[in-house]
Write a structure and sequence with these properties.
The protein is an alpha+beta fold. The protein contains 42 helices and 31 strands. α3 packs across α17 and α19 runs parallel beside α24.
Length: 1223
């Protein structure tokens, strides 16, 4: 093939017009611990920090890259394409630790990818001359660097490692077809033939242990998951429950095997790079077990709810029995006898009425007889990664059912539907089609699964029906083809082709051609996880070219996502892409021949091509053998008529060349979710999705985030004709001004009138940029207690009241506060923005309401109509989740599926907001406040957030400051060290006391624990110690931190009073409460009080918790001292001055992690050395804040950050790039 240059110049440096820079890539967990860090990462200067982090963390090869390389001469291969290997002689001259390393520059990655493609392309005969090969090599590098396109993740992981660095390893059971001989060959190397495919469809036979059977499938899936790929399987060949087996028994049914596969996938992926396996499970609508399959996830979610409610009920009721026993004033035998202890009788009756098993009730009585005073019954919550979810099945796959037109017509006519046995084909059961459809709608409404795949629509566009029907798909539903085939994906970033208000159509066509060639070369060079997939993929050569950022492009152009013009633009770009891809495929076929199955499918494939062309010509009829008339290209509403002409031209050429030469590929395009690769291209939107928010939180290189407007908004406003000064005001309305300087109602002038001086105004201004609400800036900690009480005249008791609102006290109205809040912190929406015309609002509509005031969002149908506009021109399908509001009904779900079918969409998945169980973190905060409960039940998002924030302040922020200054500990002080093992982890607790014996400091150390966790616990101990020295009562800490839950947790060894703990903090504050507060209610065993290490209550109520040391235990004062004082106090090991305590961000970040309720963007209780306590803003919990920022509100399973967004039918993390899909 001839390759022209469009982005580079012959003889010039590839990156001549592109500047590179170095940055530090660092990804942290929410607790501040470093997940990944790499200094001096070289990336193109225009890349965001997130894109830099993704390529550095995900795609840089971390090890095995030689510091010195040498070329390997290869006959017939141009010198610039020679492979490179380690130069052993040169390496020998280097220090041993400097010989091998990892990639540190994006240039290295671009070169190894483009170089490997060009190398294999040359060997396969894809380039006419060496000049064409070099042009291709350089054009591909620059497109990667400019973020114009990107291949799927397995390419980044695997491609070019052998070519660029000589990296190799033992074979992993893969196969490839030799491009020279056409023979199936078993691989002898890990990387010589890379594994670049992301999407697989695998078959499964109705056989238990043989090759191709059920258990073999789990092994094949594992091989794919290991290399970062995803897989889907239609399980409909498996017998239903009760069907006869050849040995005379009965089958256990489909569901039992699906649960095994679900567990296997979860185990493999949990140790890998994403939270759940990229896996699709498909079952036909006529399978005997289809009803159980549809309800599978619904029932599993009900199990989670039952586990949560049941475990908490058990703990409450069983401990109520202990309380009844503990309150008895008399002998223990009478206390545990319900015939004598009426309180106990009532507690037992209440437990029985709550269905607590009698065996557990008896067990509590037995415990009480043995001296126990409480029981630690493990409780569960509904967090996604919690023990409750991990104990149920169905959480590691996307589920879909295959429905036929016959079924959907039976739904329309209220007809019968037969479920068919897999063996023999007899009717297993006859049900009403509408009843089954009702189940589907309910399941989608209740738990977002299953999705729907429209079998007849899929197969009406099938290019190779002579080789069998299409039955399956990949995990995200965009790749649909024959079983045991694979597809490698690449997506183009549409926004990079928009320049100065004009779409670069010629550049787009050039990119489509080159990326089609790249994906075709990838088929030739690849290895596959099984013989069948290797052979089938080689024979049919399916490709997955697609695009991303259609939502960003449309907004930039000033077009609404839900508009005729937006849909026409989408249709035109899709038509051009697929038309050019098939024309390129035919061009390759003219030189290398068509795919192996083309001749027997020739008429079918050309029929499909003609149907695509008819749609590109805008025809409403005349389609051949289609069950549903597709949505044609809307010529009249396309804002760029050049694209219409180019689309028609592309399809004319595709058919002309195809009729003459055939096609090299059975399929060419899909629209994938572009998860991780969307981030590396800095795409605002993924695949065909609209944007999720107008204000984004941009990551900084040194950590932290700042608010920026969606990059498409300024472009859209300029396109719509707004002048620069108005654009600035509109953007400021969304992101805020970050200052009270010109704010309405509350501003510098108004504050001066209330006595604020320059110093106080400066303090307020410094705290505003990170504030979520200005009310959290106006407090004694920001302004100083002296100013608040002296100048402002606010009584101390009011200042210490967590519900106190200083701004309202100063006379500002709620309207004043709200107006100033909008000015300073921004509204995160454009609704109501100054100058913005109402007729332009639709341009900025997103998938969700934006910010605290936003009401508008894209309707359900808008997503489906956009899919339909593109589907007519896609070889495969579209990965897309239809977002539905929480108020959507079951009928709405059914109608969404029915509309999709009527418009020719091939597959669909729904996500109703809130359909998944989620832990109401606010419930504990508002349990005693009816007004707050009402707001959480019926208020809007902002009102809920405000209530949460206020309650968090009330619960966690220091309520009472006894001392006006910090009371330092003696230079040498007594204390004790307690060693224990909590959940298998050694914990050392060390205390320090004042002269009067009160607690003044703690130290926590974890033996052989990770450095990050040890540091976190150490910082937490510092934060607590400083609080104690400022007079925060120990009771406050005990109440806040006992019963907190996180790992490690479990049984406690080595402590005579504490026997079980829900977390390290729970254990520590139980121990401190027992030792210093006489809180025996928090002990599991009554402390005996015979020595300092186990001080506590005696055996009976009312006895002092410290006994005198018996004469027999000490004959001299020194011996007595040894029993009551610490070893360090006796100078056996004199400590240095422990005066290094300074509260600050590190300790607070730790506190925010361990107590999620206090998480925020600023310090909650950062302690200064001169004032009592300083605090910045107090925000809501991370999940709530994430939802308000437009994220899903779930934590990323890889980095823990709450930055997950919907990504096709999957999710991706905007912090680390992790994805639950396969791209």
């Amino acid at each position: 093939m001839k390759i022209e240059r469009r982005f580079t110049k012959a003889g010039a440096d590839v990156y001549a017009d592109l500047e590179f820079t170095t940055t530090t890539s660092e990804i942290r967990n929410p607790d501040g611990t470093v997940v990944f860090k790499l200094d001096n990462v070289e990336v193109p200067a225009g890349w965001s920090q997130v894109a830099s982090d993704v390529i550095a963390q995900k795609y840089f090869r971390k090890a095995g890259v030689p510091a010195r390389l040498k070329p390997v001469k290869e006959k017939g291969v141009p010198e610039f394409l020679w492979r490179q290997v380690a130069d052993d002689e040169a390496l020998a001259a280097l220090p041993e630790d400097a010989r091998m390393g990892g990639e540190t520059s994006a240039r290295q990655v671009f070169r190894r990818l483009a170089g490997a493609w060009a190398y294999w392309g040359w060997k396969g005969g894809y380039f006419t001359t060496e000049t064409d090969a070099r042009a291709y090599f350089e054009e591909m590098q620059l497109m990667l660097a400019r973020q114009m396109a990107a291949p799927n993740s397995p390419q980044w992981f695997n491609t070019g490692l052998h070519w660029a660095y000589g990296i190799d390893g033992p074979a992993q059971g893969h196969y490839y077809v030799d491009y020279k001989t056409g023979k199936l060959t078993k691989s002898t190397s890990s990387y010589e033939h890379p594994q670049p495919h992301a999407c697989f469809i695998q078959s499964v036979a109705d056989d238990l242990v043989n090759e191709g059977g059920i258990m073999d499938l789990w092994v094949r899936e594992a091989r794919l998951f290991k290399y970062g790929s995803g897989t889907g399987t239609n399980f409909s060949h498996l017998r239903g429950a009760g069907e006869k087996l050849s040995g005379g028994g009965k089958s256990s049914g489909l569901m039992g095997f699906l649960k095994i596969g679900d567990r296997a996938a979860g185990a493999i992926k949990s140790g890998g790079t994403t939270r759940r396996a990229a896996k699709m499970v498909i079952v036909d609508a006529d399978h005997p077990d289809i009803e159980a399959f549809i309800d599978w996830k619904v029932i599993e979610e009900q199990k989670v709810a039952s586990l949560v409610a049941g475990s908490k009920t058990h703990e409450k009721m069983l401990n109520a029995i202990f309380t009844a026993i503990g309150g008895w004033d008399g002998a223990i035998d009478d206390a545990v006898d319900p015939t004598k202890n009426d309180t106990l009788k009532k507690a037992i009756r209440a437990a029985k009425s709550a269905s607590i098993p009698e065996t557990y009730i008896k067990r509590v009585l037995d415990y009480a007889r043995q001296g126990y005073t409480a029981i630690e019954f493990p409780t569960y919550d509904t967090d996604w990664d919690s023990e409750a979810y991990s104990s149920v099945s169905g959480q590691n796959s996307n589920n879909s059912i295959r429905v036929t037109d016959a079924f959907l017509k039976a739904v329309e006519t209220d007809g019968d539907w037969s479920l068919m046995n897999r063996v023999g084909g007899k009717v297993s059961k006859t049900i009403k089609a509408r009843d089954l459809w009702e189940k589907v709608g309910h399941a989608a409404w209740a738990c977002a699964d299953p999705g729907i795949q429209f079998h007849d629509t899929v197969n009406a566009w099938h290019t190779c029906p002579e080789d069998g029907a299409i039955r399956g798909s990949n995990p995200c539903s965009e790749y649909m083809f024959l079983d045991d085939t694979a597809c490698n994906l690449a997506s183009m970033n549409l926004l990079t082709f928009q320049h100065a208000g004009q779409f670069d159509a010629e550049g787009y066509i050039h990119a489509c051609r080159l990326w089609t060639l790249t994906l075709e070369i990838s088929v030739m060079m690849a290895q596959f996880p099984s013989k069948e997939i290797a052979q089938q993929s080689y024979d049919f050569r399916t490709l997955g070219l697609g695009y991303a950022n259609i939502g960003g492009l449309l907004m930039n152009m000033g077009l609404g996502y839900d508009s005729d013009e937006g849909r026409a633009m989408c249709g035109a770009l899709t038509a051009i892409m697929t038309g050019v891809a098939y024309a390129t495929s035919a061009e390759i076929a003219s030189e290398l021949g068509p795919f192996a199955g083309f001749e027997r499918n020739r008429e079918h494939m050309l029929r499909v091509m003609r149907n695509h062309r008819s749609a590109a010509y805008g025809k409403t009829d005349g389609y051949e053998q289609l069950n549903v008339t597709p949505v044609p290209l809307d010529h009249a509403n396309c804002p760029d008529q050049r694209l219409i002409a180019l689309a028609r031209q592309a399809w004319d050429e595709a058919i002309t060349l195809g009729e003459a030469h055939g096609y090299r590929n059975a399929q060419s395009t899909v629209i994938a979710p572009t998860g991780t690769i969307g981030l590396v291209m800095d795409c605002d939107t993924t695949g065909i999705e609209p944007d999720f928010a107008l204000v984004k939180f941009k990551k900084l290189a040194g950590g932290g985030y700042f608010k920026i407007i969606n990059q498409s908004v300024p472009g859209a406003l300029e396109t719509l004709g707004y002048p620069s000064n108005e654009i600035e005001e509109i953007i400021a309305y969304a992101v805020g001004h970050g200052t009270l300087g010109q704010a309405p109602g509350i501003n510098h002038t108004a504050l001066i009138g209330h006595g604020f001086g320059p110093a106080e105004i400066a303090k307020v201004e410094a705290a505003l940029p990170s504030a979520f609400d200005i009310r959290f800036v106006f407090n004694q900690w920001t302004l100083g207690a002296d100013f608040c009480t002296g100048t402002l005249g606010i009584p101390t008791e009011k200042l210490n009241d967590p519900t106190f609102d200083m701004l309202r006290h100063l006379g500002f109205t709620k309207a004043d506060v709200d107006a100033a809040n909008d000015h300073v912190c921004g509204t995160m929406t454009l609704e109501g923005a100054p100058y913005l015309k109402l007729e332009h609002y639709h341009v900025f509509d997103c998938a969700n309401p934006c910010g605290k005031k936003g009401k508008r969002y894209l309707g359900v149908d808008s997503h489906i109509y956009m899919m339909a506009a593109a589907q007519s021109f896609i070889s495969g399908a579209i990965s897309k989740t239809i977002n539905m509001p929480n108020s959507a009904t079951i009928e709405d779900c059914q109608k969404a599926y029915e509309l999709s079918w009527s418009l020719g969409v091939k597959a669909n998945a729904l996500y109703r907001d809130g359909s998944k169980l989620s832990q109401p973190l606010a419930s504990a905060l508002v349990e005693d406040d009816e007004e707050a409960q009402d707001i959480l039940e019926s208020g809007n998002t902002m009102e809920k957030a405000q209530v949460l924030a206020e309650k968090i302040v009330e619960k966690i922020v220091i309520k009472e400051i006894i001392k006006a200054h910090r009371e330092k500990l003696p230079e040498r002080r007594k204390g004790y060290t307690q060693k224990a093992i909590v959940g298998g982890h050694k914990v050392y607790l060390r205390t320090g006391e004042y002269k009067d014996g009160t607690l003044g400091e703690i130290f926590i150390d974890m033996h052989k624990e990770g450095a990050g966790f040890r540091a976190m616990m150490n910082n937490f101990a510092i934060a607590v110690s400083v609080g104690l020295q400022y007079g925060v009562p120990l009771e406050e800490f005990v109440d806040a931190f006992t019963f907190t839950k996180f790992e490690p947790s479990g049984m406690v060894q080595g402590n005579d009073s504490i026997k079980n703990a829900t977390s390290i903090l729970d254990y520590i504050f139980r121990e401190l409460a027992v030792s210093y507060l006489d809180r025996t209610d928090l002990a599991h065993v009554q402390p005996q009080g015979t020595s300092f290490d186990d001080v506590g209550r005696g055996a009976e109520e009312g006895v002092s918790n410290i006994r005198e040391v018996p004469e027999s235990r000490a004959s001299t004062p020194i011996e007595v001292l040894k029993q009551v004082a610490s070893t360090g106090y006796l100078r056996k090991r004199a400590p240095q001055e422990l005066l290094v305590f300074r509260g600050g961000a590190d300790a607070v970040a730790t506190l925010e992690t361990i107590v999620p309720e206090v998480r925020g963007t600023s310090a909650i209780a950062a302690v200064a050395t001169t004032t009592a306590v300083t605090t910045g803003t107090v925000s809501m919990d991370a999940a709530t804040r994430a939802k308000m920022q437009g994220y899903e509100g779930e934590a990323c399973g890889e980095c823990g950050n709450y930055t997950l967004v919907r990504n096709g039918t999957c999710m991706k993390c905007n912090t680390c790039g992790g994805t639950s899909g396969c791209s």
